[in-house]
Design goal:
The complex is a heterodimer of chains A (about 375) and B (about 325). Chain A has about 375 residues and is of the alpha/beta class. The radius of gyration of chain A is 22 Å and the shape is globular. Classes of the chains: A alpha/beta (about 375), B mainly alpha (about 325).
Chain lengths: ~375, ~325
């Protein structure tokens, strides 16, 4: 799904993003205080491209997606900021107008296909329902479309499977059904929230390939939410790294992997298990993600950051860094000066490959 | 499916058999002399001995049980040699020497009263309990929800005998809005029937409705957290469709089970309501049979009630398979 670099360079007109999220915040009141689940997140994605949103559990990536979809209950949460979808602003829009966009212009698939389909209705009925709620088509036409979609997502014998109940399908098949349901109205934005986490490893690749194939067919903008940096490298055009409700680094995928700048991203990259690097042990980030109830002062990552002494006057502990441009397409939220960040990254990546080389020599 | 039905029916029959043994043993083999209970306090030992022989209480337990069971199919004659033998025609569930009537005909006479009482209360409690439960769940945490929970708590903790007597005292005696309850068949006098039944229906329904409000509310709230409800919203379905077609369809199914079993339990008799409101149903009959130590009658009613529950269980299981496609009867 990634376009070759040569093609990218010939692009003269920068396409308008299909989805642009500006300064989105979501907070929930709770008994222990206000939970800031998403704090000033900005993202954008154009049609045909994939943006990966990466982060640990609780970093706010799923809540961001739900907020874009208008699936955050506004009675129990406060949503502020802007969500622009195809030129329309959704946060200020009334519920029923947003509802009409859900499933038609934007669609979402979820982590657990085992529980995401209704257990009491046949697959075909659930697919047709998704089509018929947005378009005036007959039941027969909707059923025909459902069968067609099942075929397109690679379900064998779709004419028979259309009358199955979800429990009669395997996990991978169910996720295919979810994808078919999401794409039945050809939405231009697909949000996939950890779509492969609940699946067998062998099925994971198939599902990702399927999403990529359908993305090409439908020219869809895809947001892939994941904690798995391993799959990001293969499928995403751009990556946004989230930590403690904020975006801490965002860049095109190759750039992010080649020269990460934020220490948290470095930590994430160092902790990917890789088959081509025989290391004795993984290098996890020390400490735990902060409680969403009380984010640390200054940089939210500072309690776990190894490099706070590189910044004078303890700014990391006191001043909250902004998300700033480091390169034309590279945003970083870090107090460490840019040249020094590059140094740190180079050192860290070198150390990583040195370790790999040593381990490799042992073979 | 056919194999399942056959197996379930066989299972039911064997369960009923075991049950009959248990009930028979429980009531006939316990300490206490059934022969002595057949006549009043002034009985002489000679009469007791005579009765013991006439009624077969001197037989070994197994013989007694076999006679009892075969009586269900072929009928029974007690003391055949005496000038006035007691004939208990098939199906003979026993004979109440206390009342000089077959147990079955006593039950058949009382059953319709209990049936109407249970059905009426059932309709009210399901209608009120389930709809208020849904209503509360949809307004979770706001004042209507708290109100429903409060009402449910009151209804649940209100002792029904007290509430029944209260209603009886004010509505019937003090204000005389309703005539003194006296059961008539709905087919003979529909107005009189309703006038008699409305208070016991309310008393009985309140207790169950209170429980069903909470049950429904919790079921619905739980289902709202389910992933498939989020999927329904993500599809862009109107909230109404999300609630009715997706959430309630799944959330209310467990209530089918609870409701079926509760109704079956109630069909065995509502002891308190029937006694307060002077309804000659199975509940009142069982209380009388216990106070009179009418063993054959107690045995008969207990057997019948237990059978009802076994059958209801079976029906509920069948229903569940209809409602939930994941349940397969194999």
């Amino acid at each position: 799904m990634r376009q070759p670099d040569s093609l990218r360079q010939t692009e003269t007109v920068v396409p308008e993003p299909y989805l642009a999220v500006n300064n989105l915040s979501v907070s929930f009141p709770s008994e222990d205080g206000v939970v800031h689940a998403v704090d000033g997140v900005s993202l954008s994605v154009v049609r045909g491209k994939t943006l990966a949103v990466v982060g640990e559990s609780g970093s706010g990536k799923s809540v961001t997606a739900l907020a874009v979809m208008g699936l955050i209950n506004r009675k129990s949460a406060t949503v502020t900021g802007e969500v622009w979808l195809d030129g329309e602003e959704l946060v200020g829009m009334n519920d029923s107008s947003v509802r009409k966009l859900r499933g038609s212009k934007m669609a979402m698939i979820f982590q657990d296909p085992m529980s995401s389909l209704h257990p009491f209705y046949r697959v075909g009925a659930q697919l047709s329902e998704a089509a018929r709620v947005h378009r005036r088509i007959s039941k027969a036409a909707a059923r025909a479309e459902a069968i067609e979609m099942l075929h397109r997502v690679g379900i064998p014998a779709p004419k028979r499977r259309v009358d199955d109940y979800p429990h009669q399908l395997s996990g991978g098949m169910r996720q295919r059904v979810m994808i078919a349901m999401a794409l039945i109205n050809s939405p231009a934005l697909l949000i996939a929230d950890e779509p492969t986490t609940a699946l067998d490893v062998t099925v994971q690749a198939q599902i990702l390939d399927l999403i990529a194939k359908l993305q090409d067919e439908f020219n869809t903008a895809v947001i892939l939410i994941t904690h798995d940096l391993g799959i990001v490298a293969d499928v995403a055009d751009d990556v946004a790294v989230m930590y403690a409700a904020r975006v801490v680094e965002a860049a095109p995928t190759e750039r992010l992997y080649a020269s990460p700048e934020m220490p948290y991203t470095l930590g994430l990259l160092a902790s990917i298990p890789r088959m081509d690097r025989r290391t004795d042990r993984l290098d996890p980030i020390k400490g735990n993600p902060p409680s969403p109830l009380k984010h640390p002062s200054g940089c939210v990552f500072h309690p776990r950051c190894k490099y706070t002494d590189r910044v004078p006057n303890g700014a990391c502990m006191e001043i909250r860094p902004e998300l700033l441009l480091s390169e034309p397409d590279h945003l970083v939220r870090c107090h460490i000066p840019s040249p020094e960040r590059h140094e740190i990254a180079t050192e860290a990546l070198d150390a990583l490959s040195a370790k790999a080389a040593v381990a490799g020599a042992d073979l | 499916m056919a194999a399942y039905l056959v197996r379930r029916v066989l299972l039911m029959i064997s369960l009923l058999l075991i049950l009959s043994v248990a009930v028979f043993l429980l009531f006939n083999m316990l300490p206490g002399d059934p022969a002595r209970l057949t006549c009043g306090k002034s009985c002489t030992e000679a009469v007791i001995e005579q009765n013991r022989q006439r009624l077969g209480y001197d037989d070994p337990p197994l013989t007694q049980y076999v006679k009892f069971m075969s009586g269900i199919f072929t009928g029974r004659v007690f003391s055949p040699e005496s000038p006035e033998p007691i004939v208990c025609a098939a199906p003979c569930l026993g004979y109440s020497f206390n009342r000089h009537e077959q147990v079955l005909s006593l039950i058949v006479r009382a059953a319709p009263v209990t049936f109407w009482l249970a059905i009426g209360a059932f309709i009210i409690w399901i209608a009120v309990g389930v709809s208020l439960g849904i209503f509360a769940a949809l307004r979770r945490g706001r004042w209507p929800d708290r109100l429903v929970l409060g009402v449910s708590l009151i209804g649940y903790s209100l002792p029904s005998f007290f509430f029944g007597l209260l209603l009886m005292f004010f509505v019937v005696i003090q204000w005389q809005w309703l005539p003194y309850p006296s059961y008539v068949s709905p087919f003979e006098d529909p107005v009189g029937f309703l006038q008699t039944m409305i208070l016991p229906w309310i008393v009985l329904a309140i207790l169950y409705a209170a429980f069903y409000m909470r049950l429904t509310r919790n079921q619905v709230l739980e289902v709202f957290n389910d992933d498939f409800v989020r999927t329904a919203r993500a599809k862009g379905l109107p909230e109404r469709t999300v609630v009715v077609k997706h959430a309630l369809r799944a959330g209310l199914t467990p209530i089918v089970t609870a409701a079926g079993l509760d109704l079956a339990g109630l069909l065995g008799g509502a002891i308190i309501s029937e006694n307060i409101f002077n309804l000659p149903g199975l509940g009142a009959l069982s209380v009388e049979s216990i106070t009179n130590s009418d063993l054959p009658l107690i045995t008969g009613i207990t057997l019948l009630t237990a059978s009802l529950i076994i059958v209801a269980n079976f029906i509920v299981d069948l229903l569940y398979a209809v409602v939930d496609p994941r349940v397969r009867l194999v």
